[in-house]
Design goal:
The protein is mostly beta strands. The chain folds into 2 domains: about 30-150, Lipocalin (Beta Barrel), CATH 2.40.128.270; about 160-265, Lipocalin, CATH 2.40.128.270. The protein is about 10% helix and about 45% strand. The chain has 2 helices and 21 strands. It has helices at about 110-120, 225-235, and strands at about 5, 45-55, 55-60, 65-70, 75, 80-90, 95, 100, 125-130, 135, 145-150, 160-165, 170, 180-185, 190-195, 200-205, 210-215, 215-220, 240-245, 250-255, 260-265. An 8-stranded antiparallel β-barrel has the order 12-14-15-16-17-19-20-21. An 8-stranded antiparallel beta barrel has the order 2-4-5-6-7-9-10-11. A hairpin with a 2-residue loop joins strand 6 (about 80-90) and strand 7 (about 95). The protein is elongated, with a radius of gyration of 21 Å. Pfam families: META.
Length: about 270
């Protein structure tokens, strides 16, 4: 069953790294102390690995992430819905105010995770940062584990299609078509991948905010059901020039009619 999301929330932005902290004291023997520096968590894209509640760990959906800006905002995706909240970093404590969020109807498993993450990512959290891995612990002992994640380049990354776009709404893929369609842009101006059923190749001329595709060549395998439904929609997107938006590890391609698809980076150049 398809679900829809109103994406009227302002696009989330990645900001520059800002680690605050200062030491103070009046020299040896003076009795002066030090000011605990803030944990350097701002300006980083934190991919949510899992949430542990009452001792039970639940793995996060692929797109769950958090970014904390040095202007005092936490923003990201709970796994299905986008969110934003006021936040303050005080030494090793992060204080997160109740969040605003979009209202996409999500699959039950994802919705359950969102509820857990939203509850855990509120209030006073103790932060522990070790080797690029961040653990946020609530006052009752529940925790969120996150990993710093570099952005994905357009070229060389395998982009796996995860939703369809129509104007200001996004819809989940037809049931049974998940993880079937993907594309990879080559350094030589080529693009290749799978449409969900058939493999394809084409050319791609990339500009600042648009991509112009050449003639699409694809295999002729006959498929039925959700895979072919997805393929028909993707073929239409590959006709001519489309707008594209690259946001960290997500890519959206949209045609002049507002129809398109979104994809997540599932394999980056140099990653194993």
């Amino acid at each position: 069953m398809r679900t829809k999301l109103s994406i009227s929330v302002t696009a989330l932005a990645v900001v520059a790294l800002a680690a605050c902290g200062a030491e103070s004291g009046s020299g040896p023997g003076s009795g002066g102390g030090t000011v605990q520096p803030d944990v350097p968590v701002t300006g980083v894209h934190w991919s949510v690995d899992s949430v542990t509640v009452d001792g039970r760990r639940t793995a996060a959906p692929a797109d769950a992430h958090v970014e904390i800006t040095d202007e005092g905002r936490a923003q990201g995706n709970y796994g299905c819905n986008h969110f934003g909240a006021d936040v303050k970093v005080e030494g090793d404590t992060i204080i997160v105010q109740p969040a605003e969020m979009t209202e996409m109807a999500c699959e039950e498993k994802v919705q359950n995770f969102e509820d857990m993450l939203r509850a855990a990512l509120t209030g006073r959290l103790r932060a522990d940062l070790t080797d690029g891995r961040l653990t946020l612990t609530t006052q009752k002992g529940d925790s969120i584990t996150l990993t710093s994640e570099p952005p994905a380049p357009l070229v060389g990354t395998r982009w796996t299609v995860n939703s369809l776009v129509s104007g200001d709404t996004a819809a989940s893929l037809p049931a049974g078509a998940e993880d079937k369609a993907y594309l990879t842009f080559g350094k030589d101006g080529s693009v290749a991948g799978s449409l969900g059923c058939n493999r394809f190749t084409s050319t791609a001329e990339v500009s600042e905010d648009s991509i112009t595709f050449g003639r699409l060549a694809a295999t002729k395998k006959l498929c039925e059901g959700p895979e072919m439904d997805l393929e028909r929609k993707m073929v239409k997107v590959f006709e001519g020039t489309v707008a594209y938006e690259l946001n960290h590890r997500s890519l959206t391609l949209t045609g002049p009619d507002g129809e398109g698809f979104a994809a997540l980076a599932t394999d980056l150049p140099g990653e194993k």
